[in-house]
């Protein structure tokens, strides 16, 4: 069944297209909030900020979590290192490996991202009402739970994006 991907009217889009557009729109709004708070970055840098552990993460872990190649993640980390948001440090559990660790400025950028998310959550409640927002959360939680790996069959049905980890 063909879909009209060219139309911007939600009534003409399939559910997957609308979810994709909402994801993209909200992601850009979070980045706009972070940049507006004085932390310049690009939307692609969210792949690092959304995946990094508070104590630091290996580049290969970040790449795996973000579903991108280590080479692509390395370029993003290089960008963020140049901007002063992350540093590379020896991994205390394996001196051959490096951890990508947030700097004070990086932690402040993550905090700005959290504040942007709080603002977006409030806006969603304004638009949908408290009950509608709760229904949306429950519906999305159900879809995400259904997309988790099917451990009995050993088949992954879908993957989910992680929220900001710090």
Describe the structure.
It is a single chain. The chain has a single domain (about 15-140), classed as Winged helix-like DNA-binding domain superfamily/Winged helix DNA-binding domain (Arc Repressor Mutant, subunit A, Orthogonal Bundle). Helices cover about 55% and strands about 10% of the residues. It is mainly alpha-helical. The relative contact order is 0.12. The chain has five helices and three strands; from the N terminus they run H-H-E-H-H-E-E-H. Residues about 1-5 and about 150-165 have low confidence and may be disordered. It has a three-stranded antiparallel β-sheet. The chain is globular, with a radius of gyration of 18 Å. Strand 2 and strand 3 (about 95-100) form a beta hairpin.
SSE map:
Layout: H1 15-36, H2 46-49, E1 57-58, H3 59-66, H4 70-83, E2 86-91, E3 94-102, H5 104-146
Antiparallel strand pairs: 1-3, 2-3
Summarize the structure.
The chain has one domain: Orthogonal Bundle (Arc Repressor Mutant, subunit A). It is built from five helices and three strands. The chain has helices at residues 15-36, 46-49, 59-66, 70-83, 104-146, and strands at residues 57-58, 86-91, 94-102.
